[in-house]
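Researcher: I'd like a structural prediction for the single chain below. Treat it as a standalone chain; there are no partners to consider.
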Amino acid sequence: MNAMNTRTRWISRFAIFSLSLLAPSIALAQGCALCYTQAAGSGARMIQALRGGILILVVPPMLICLAITWIAYKKRNQFNDESSVEASEPDTHS
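Model: Treating it as a single chain, here is the predicted structure.
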């Protein structure tokens, strides 16, 4: 029964993923019409400013996430050292 439940869950996830790939127009329709018309009607200088703003809004959070991931990766075995496990266990060999 548990295997059937797991299989059903994976099939539903695959179906949702497939539908999201088959309907890109729905996914791309989330843009703001006002923002689109403002960007389309602006000059090259404004478009360059928008591109710079997008980079400013994307790059720092990405770097912060990468730094947190790197720190977590480096610290992953801090409390699982064999020396710390052996030191905390009582000596039963006597």
